[in-house]
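1st attempt posting a full record on here, be nice pls
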Amino acid sequence: MKAKDFDRKFDRGEDVSSDLDLSKARRPGEEQRRVNVDFPVWVIESLDREARRLGVTRQSVIKVWIAERLEKTYS
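the predicted structure (as tokens):
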């Protein structure tokens, strides 16, 4: 499909999702890199308690808390 045909279809409000190859789509700024952090045992135990309470993983708790703190710091 040519770009002008795609644009015309999009401008008419038609669904263009079947015309896209989303297999390699990426959200800018959302790439991930692994980091290793050492915590005292009491911190890990506290994180695990909170994770169980929320029904999520320890990693999820850490990510959310850090993201919340960064948003607060830079807003």
